[in-house]
TrEMBL record:
Ranges of residues in domain Pyruvate carboxyltransferase: 5-257
SUPFAM superfamilies: Aldolase (SSF51569)
Keywords from the UniProt entry: Lyase, Manganese
GO biological process entries: L-leucine biosynthetic process
UniProt name for this protein: 4-hydroxy 2-oxovalerate aldolase
InterPro entries tied to this protein: 2-IPM_HCS-like (IPR050073), Aldolase_TIM (IPR013785), PYR_CT (IPR000891)
CDD domains tied to this protein: DRE_TIM_HOA_like
Length: 317
């Protein structure tokens, strides 16, 4: 195994997009203890958005990750570090405590390419507060070309620690990942790279291990693949692939049995033809998620035809 690799489990954060972050405290504690026992490097415990800037109705506490609350949930941090993500325009920098007063070690800034300057401003603020930082360029499959190169040059000049390739739509193949890694390495050579994949085309695991083999150091995963739509690269598969004494898959298998399987009986995530269709069209999975919640949940051909027709496409986006 390459010694610099880090596994970052984002079950609570990306899985929260499936259940509105409605995980109980025991569930999250058990996940933390299991990830720690498995040797996983980071657990992403949620979003650190401001309740003043997002709708709080029916949304669990992992959407906000308030410091006092996180300290109550995990009073004793072990080896596994904690991360939280923020969205542009949904975080109040003045509410973020200095890192030494918080349980969070890493703040990741999620942004679309157009907001790269705002992301860098946030990173500068969090860096001054003592956090590790990353910039996660979402929907990168829609952002190839000169704009990406220019953005990466700015990222390279910024104090950010990691630059992440984020396949939000799950529409990338190994050859696309190869191109992106080369581009990120060319224009942001000073930064560590990370990869976050979705499984719409059944490529999440393949693209993650491909990235690892190409020198990407931060690998995002989630237990049992729990994440929005088709879900993410399963933590258990990556630990198996890395096959190192540093990691132990057994605690993850236990938590799948005890925690994830009961949840999967109530909620849907993971590969499904509807998500494959948005992946094929390189689109956000929201229309597929809506279809899966409707009476037409298995009308895949109708959904495909709608997405491929100019007349009907816009109304379901
Ligand atoms: C920045 C995050 O990785 C957001 C996310 O999960 C996405 O797929 O986009």
């Amino acid at each position: 195994m390459k010694t610099n690799v880090k596994v970052l489990d984002c079950t609570i954060r990306d899985g929260g997009l499936v259940n509105n972050w409605d995980f109980d405290v025991d569930f999250v504690r058990d996940l933390y203890d299991s990830l720690n026992a498995a040797g996983v490097d980071y657990m992403e415990i949620g979003y650190k958005n401001s309740p003043k800037l997002v709708d709080t109705e029916g949304v669990g506490p992992w959407r906000f990750c308030e410091d006092d609350f996180i300290r109550e949930v995990i009073p004793e941090k072990k080896n596994t570090k904690l991360s939280a993500i923020v969205d542009i325009g949904r975080v109040e920098v003045d509410d973020i405590l200095p890192c030494e007063e918080s349980s969070i070690d890493l703040i990741r800034v999620a942004c679309y390419l157009k907001d790269i300057d705002k992301a860098i401003d946030l990173v500068e603020a969090f860096n001054k507060l003592g956090y590790e930082t990353s910039i996660n360029i979402m929907a990168v499959s829609n952002s190839l070309g000169l704009g990406l190169n220019e953005a990466l040059k700015k990222v390279n000049e910024s104090p950010v620690d990691m630059a992440y390739i984020v396949d939000s739509y799950g529409s990338l193949y190994n050859k696309d990942i190869q191109y992106l890694i080369e581009t990120f390495k060319k224009y942001a050579p000073n930064k560590k790279l990370g990869i976050h994949t979705h499984n719409n085309l059944q490529m999440a695991f393949s693209n993650t291990i491909f990235s690892y083999e190409q020198g990407v150091e931060f690998l995002d995963t989630s237990i049992f693949g729990m994440g929005r739509g088709a879900g993410n690269c399963p933590t258990e598969l990556i630990l198996g692939y890395l096959n190192s004494t540093k990691y132990d898959v057994r605690p993850i298998l236990r938590v799948i049995e005890n925690r994830l399987l009961p949840l999967r009986e109530k909620l849907e995530w993971g590969y499904n033809t509807a998500y494959a269709i948005t992946g094929l069209f390189n689109e956000h999975p929201r229309s597929a998620i809506a279809i899966r919640k409707s009476n037409a949940k298995n009308n895949f051909l109708g959904f495909y035809d709608k997405l491929s027709s100019v007349e009907t496409h816009e109304d379901i986006k």
